Each structure stands twice: as C-alpha cells, then as structure tokens.
Amino acid sequence: ISILSELKHCHLHENLLTYLPMTMGLLSNLVDLTIHDNPLASFPHHLISAPPHEIIDFLREQLYTTQPVHRMRLLIVGQENIGKSTLVKCLGKHWTKLRDGVDSHRQLIYAQSFDSSDSLDKNKTSEKQDEESKLNGADGIDIATYFFTQEPCTFETSDSSPSLNQLGTEGNRVVVNVWDFAGQEVYYAAHSFFLSRNSVYLALFDLSEEPAVAESRLFFWLESIRAHVKRPRVIVIGTHLDEFSDRDAVDARLTALQESCPTLFPSFAFIHVTAVSCVTEENIVALQEKIEELILAHPTLNVAVPIAYPIFAEILQEFSLKYASPIISHEEYIKLANSVGLNEARKAQGVTRWLQDMGDILYFNEYPILADIVVLDPNWLIDVLRSLFTTHTRSKKGILRHSRLS
Predict the structure, then answer these.
(1) Measured between alpha carbons, how far is 139 from 121 in angstroms, rounded to an integer?
(2) pTM value?
(3) I need a labelling partner for 55 at 20 to 30 A (CA). Which of 213, 223, 335, 403 fits?
(4) Which has the closest alpha carbon to 139: 398, 397, 394?
(5) Nearest 5 degrees, angle CA 204-CA 271-CA 286?
(6) Is it the case that residue 20 has pLDDT exceeding 90?
(7) Residue 82: closest CA among 276, 222, 274
(8) Nearest CA to 222 among 77, 22, 375, 51?
C-alpha cells in the first residue's frame, strides 16, 4: 500500500482488519482515514478515532523499530551419493515441514498459524525423476523449509507497539531453510554463491569409503567453507554407520577427526564430529538436538533488524510472483526499497546484505556486467546452472538429440 504515495482518502472502517500494515506510515498525503469498528486487538485504542496524521505518525515510528527474525539456513555439503538427501528426510521427521523451494517470505520468516497438513508440499516427484535422482544424486541445490519450537522468547512487546501476532510470527518458532547441495564436481564453483555467515553447516563423508579418500573429500568441503565464511559453525557427519559392527574402530576414527579438525581449521567457531545411520536412524535425534543447539546459539539468530527489512523482502517476493520474474533491475529494486522507507544508500545496502545472508536474493555488484540485476529467486539461478551443467545422461551412444536441448 505504501506505493500509493498520492493516496488521500482511505476508508477501512467496519471490516475484519486485525492489524494495520506499518507501511501505511509512509502515506504522507493521507488526509482522510477511518479505521473504527475493526478487531484491531493490538492497536492503541486512543488512536482509533484520532486524526489521520497521528495514526500515520504512529505507524511510521513502528516501521523503524527493530525485531529479531528467528530464521537460519542449514547448508548440507559433501560428495554425491553419500546420503545428504536421505539425511534431510530423516531430520524432517523431527521438524514441521513447510514447503519445498523458496516460498512466500511471510511464511519463511514468520512461521505463524501453520497447519502442517495444509502446508506440506503437494507436488510429487514423478517415478522417472525419482529413479533418476536415486541413480545420479541431487542436481544443483534442493531447498526445503521446516520449523521447530524453542522456549518462549525473552523480548517483549507493549500495548503501544505491534504484537508478535500482529507482525505475523510466534516468537518461539525458528524457521530452518535446509539447502541440500549437489556433490557433483560440475557444481563446485557455483556453490560458493550460496555460502554465508547466517548458516549452520553439515559436512558429510562416507564412513564406508577408504578413510584417506573420504577424509580428502571431506577436507575439500571444509576448506571451501573456510575460504568463504568467517567463523563458521560446522558439524562433520559420517554416514552409513549401520554398515559397521566394530563400533570401537568407528569411535576411534571419529575421535581422531574431532581432535585434528580444530587444529586444521582454527578459524571455525565450532566443529563437532559424529556419525549417523539413515537406515536405522541411529544418532539422528542426537544430531537434530545438536543442530537446534547450534542454531539457537548462533550470533545472528537474535540480531534485531528493522521491521522494514522483512516487509521489503515480502514485497520483493510479491513482485516476483506478480510479474513471474526471477530477476529485477537494480533501479526497480531501489524504487521498491524506497517504498518502505529504505530511501538512503546505506539503508538499501544494509537490507541487501541481510537478504543475501538469508539466501533470499543474489546480487553481484562487484561485477559491472551484473550490477544492474538482482536475482529474486535463487532457485532460478540454480535452474540456469542445471541447464548449463548436469551429470544426468543426455545422449545415447554419443548422439544428442535436438529435443534434449529445449
């Protein structure tokens, strides 16, 4: 609504409005506003019949307040076909699933009023695609979204400020965006686009492989994380634990890794080594608890950001859906930022950094040729990379048909 900058008359009385969007505070030309006879539970009663400018002033002040956004990315890396996607399914049994892929930003940030039976992804992968996935492993990056419940938040709201429900969130829910990175070599360079500090990392290796080979592959991913992320938090996970009857040998191997990793990667803020079985689900619950512990202790989880940030993120999501466009020009991006009061260069830069850390957008301003494009849907870039690089078989006996290129 803030885009309607010339709006002068707005009659909202006698509706079922439970809150007023804070972006109405940017409607500086509004001279006639009625909001009475609405169930505005958290709105100050004395302002319901107040002059328009007092209501607008109140909403504008709320727009520039700050609040923690309880959301974290869980990035899973490792070689292909070592059980990353299966591990995601096991972990998902202990969390509430929202939807696969990049969904409405309101749902991602504010996991409120969800009926998990309604929000489960209804789209089923075809048998052919499922079989191809089993044979070749994930292609690109698969994204799924879950939430879990923590203890009630310690921050409070007063009667004169927006309640958590008004903002669309319950303070005790933490949203987890799980990114399952393909392990094929052709994707290695592309993965660095998506590594950020606002994440917890799971680095997987196959216990059934020759130790020297498995650890060499593991260290490749740990080096990649170290090169792109400052003070990362990492859990190293050995898979296929069920294939070993001699647990003493496995424990000795894990202990050796636990002792060597802090020395090899001293810049890591945290590194923990464990092993799981996705067949018997041994240690899955313990792993899930460790992940939650790391997420809740992560220094970026409870950092308060301007409320305008998630509102702007939602506007970008709506723009992408309305125009069916995964990208936007930087000029249009700035115009939309201005519409929610982010009208200074430093404010636009701040929200851009935050959105990139959240994994919601990609912006390569360091490259002049790309500086005028903001990617609103990371999945789109993944699909582009899939079309350019894939490990799936596209030819038969050396013959590539034109139909496979479409």
Answers:
(1) 19
(2) 0.71
(3) 335
(4) 394
(5) 70
(6) no
(7) 276
(8) 77
**Residue 361 corresponds to which tokens in the numbers above?**
């957008």
- Which pLDDT score, from 0 to 100, does residue 222 have? 95
How wide is the angle at C-alpha 107 spanned by C-alphas 363 and 27, nearest 5°? 75
**What are the distances in angstroms from CA 125 to CA 56, 160, 315, 392?**
48, 48, 30, 16
Nearby residues of 7 by Cβ (< 8 Å), 6 or more positions away: 1, 27, 29, 30
Report how far apart, in Å, the C-alpha atoms of 272 and of each of 78, 221, 296, 385, 406 are: 16, 15, 16, 32, 45
Average pLDDT over residues 338-342: 84
| 10 contacts 33 by C-beta, under 8 angstroms | yes
Spatial contact of 139 and 391, defined as CB atoms under 8 Å apart: yes
Token output for 303: 């950092």
Using CA of residue 134, residue 137, residue 140, residue 144, what is the dihedral sign? positive
Q: In this structure, what DSSP letter does residue 153 have?
A: P
Higher pLDDT: 155 or 46? It is 46
Q: Where are the beta strands (DSSP E) in 131-243?
A: 141-149, 173-181, 199-206, 233-239
The model's pLDDT over 207-222, given as tens digits with 9 standing for 90+, comes to 999 999 999 999 999 9
- Name which of 223, 168, 170, 174 is nearest 201 in CA terms: 223
Q: Which spans in 137-234 are helix H? A: 164-167, 188-191, 211-228
Q: What is the pLDDT of residue 107?
A: 36
Give pLDDT tens digits for 292-314: 999 999 988 877 788 888 889 98
Contact 376, 319 (CB under 8 A): yes
Quick one: pLDDT at residue 95?
Answer: 92
Token pair of 134 as six digits: 């089993």
Angle, helix 308-322 to helix 330-339, in steps of 10 degrees: 130
Read off the pLDDT of residues 110-162 as tens digits, 9 standing for 90 and up.
333 233 333 334 333 333 344 344 334 445 678 888 999 876 443 333 333 33
pLDDT score of 93 more than 70 = yes
Three-state SS letters, 314-379: HHHHHHHHHCCCCEEEHHHHHHHHHHCCCCCHHHHHHHHHHHHHHCCCEECCCCHHHCCEEECCHH
**What is the C-alpha separation between 164 and 310, in angstroms, rounded?**
14
Instruction: Give the pair of three-digit tokens for residue 306.
Output: 């301007």
